[in-house]
Automatic annotation (TrEMBL):
<dbReference type="Pfam" id="PF18093">
    <property type="entry name" value="Trm5_N"/>
</dbReference>
<dbReference type="InterPro" id="IPR056744">
    <property type="entry name" value="TRM5/TYW2-like_N"/>
</dbReference>
<keyword id="KW-0963">Cytoplasm</keyword>
<dbReference type="InterPro" id="IPR056743">
    <property type="entry name" value="TRM5-TYW2-like_MTfase"/>
</dbReference>
<dbReference type="Pfam" id="PF02475">
    <property type="entry name" value="TRM5-TYW2_MTfase"/>
</dbReference>
<dbReference type="InterPro" id="IPR040601">
    <property type="entry name" value="Trm5a/b_N"/>
</dbReference>
<dbReference type="Pfam" id="PF25133">
    <property type="entry name" value="TYW2_N_2"/>
</dbReference>
<keyword id="KW-0489">Methyltransferase</keyword>
<feature type="domain" description="SAM-dependent methyltransferase TRM5/TYW2-type">
    <location>
        <begin position="79"/>
        <end position="326"/>
    </location>
</feature>
<keyword id="KW-0819">tRNA processing</keyword>
<keyword id="KW-0808">Transferase</keyword>
<dbReference type="GO" id="GO:0008175">
    <property type="term" value="F:tRNA methyltransferase activity"/>
</dbReference>
<dbReference type="InterPro" id="IPR029063">
    <property type="entry name" value="SAM-dependent_MTases_sf"/>
</dbReference>
<keyword id="KW-0949">S-adenosyl-L-methionine</keyword>
<dbReference type="InterPro" id="IPR030382">
    <property type="entry name" value="MeTrfase_TRM5/TYW2"/>
</dbReference>
<dbReference type="GO" id="GO:0005737">
    <property type="term" value="C:cytoplasm"/>
</dbReference>
<dbReference type="GO" id="GO:0002939">
    <property type="term" value="P:tRNA N1-guanine methylation"/>
</dbReference>
Length: 328
């Protein structure tokens, strides 16, 4: 039967499916169709699909009845997937365990189910987890055609930022020099290298750097990725005036590292500064901090101001893209 579908390249399928799911746009009555290198994802309302997506009518088969967690529980639980790990976020341990049991008895593929047991904490930005099903917190996450091996007990990773990472990566040109100041397991660094850039990725978390090296090998870009364990303020001394692009994905405190970002910037450098700010002025504080660090040595041009997602009531996770051009 012909139904409205979002048509996307296969490598973008999971990120697009997640975005549509977050917007309650997936039509669960029909199966996603794979046709060569293209996916057709059925949606319930073509008019509400965000701009930039290709919406077409396509023949999608009606989905066979599946056993879902809601069928077991009597309510729709909230959870997210990371590779073959399913993550729930429940304050009530008994409710969390009931959801975990429903997940494994449903048709949802889940090797491990965990419940968030703490907020992100410490310099390494890791969480505590209650493992409810299974015993392996290491998994492989696939995103836009890349694979990232990681262990959620030792590193930070958010699958919700896939679309934003892809937006930045799409701007990268071959032969660029990219300095990723808080690289983690490589979700920015590795796709940038795959576009032909030379990438330096730095992280304070030694486990994350080990995964970054492994993931560079896994994705065939080890020759273009230099992974460094250490404080980026110390590492930067070896890369003064080097970078054509700097990624600063440490939203709560990246502005504290702007002097370091400016130090590694070349004569013409694009800066991606991630921040958490109040809805009344989501970009002003970040821009003021960039100007304070870069001027008068550089001219600062705002390329884009982007709300990435809602972070908390009246607060946004935002990204400021700015070009730094050295004054003569």
């Amino acid at each position: 039967m012909n139904v409205p579908c979002v048509r996307v390249p296969r490598e973008e399928g999971e990120a697009t499916r997640r975005l549509l799911a977050d917007a309650d746009l997936l039509d669960h009555g029909y199966d996603i169709v794979v046709d060569a290198d293209v996916l057709y994802i059925p949606v319930v309302d073509a008019e509400r699909v965000p701009d930039g997506y290709d919406v077409v009518d396509h023949d999608a088969p009606a989905r066979e009845e599946r056993r879902l967690p809601a069928d077991v529980l009597g309510f729709e639980p909230s959870y997210e997937r990371l590779g073959d790990i399913v993550i729930v976020d429940e304050d009530d341990p008994e409710r969390a365990r009931a959801i975990a049991e429903a997940l494994v008895t449903s048709d949802i593929r889940a090797e491990t189910v965990v419940n968030r047991a703490s907020k992100i904490k410490g310099e390494l930005r890791v969480r505590d987890w209650d493992v409810l099903v299974g015993d392996d917190t290491e998994t492989v996450h696939r995103e836009y055609g890349f694979e990232f091996l990681l262990d959620i007990s030792t590193v930070y990773f958010s699958p919700r930022l896939a679309t934003e990472r892809h937006r930045v990566v799409e701007q990268v040109q071959a032969e660029e020099r990219v300095f990723d100041m808080f690289a983690g397991v490589g979700p920015f660094a590795i796709p940038c290298a795959a576009r032909g850039a030379e990438v330096v990725g730095v992280d304070l978390n030694e486990a994350a750097v080990d995964y970054l090296r492994a993931n560079a090998e896994r994705n065939g870009v080890a020759d273009r990725v230099t992974a460094i364990h250490g404080d980026v303020r110390d590492v930067a001394a070896d890369y003064i005036d080097w970078a054509d692009r700097v990624v600063m994905n440490l939203p709560h405190s990246a502005d504290e590292f702007l002097d370091t970002a400016v130090a590694v910037a070349s004569d013409d450098c694009v800066l991606h500064l991630y921040d958490i700010q109040h809805e009344d002025d989501p970009f002003g504080p970040g821009l003021a901090a960039v100007r304070a660090a870069a001027e008068p040595e550089y001219d600062v041009e705002v390329l884009e101001e982007r709300v990435v997602r809602s972070y908390a009531p009246h607060e946004y996770n935002v990204c400021l893209d700015a070009r730094l051009t050295r004054r003569e």
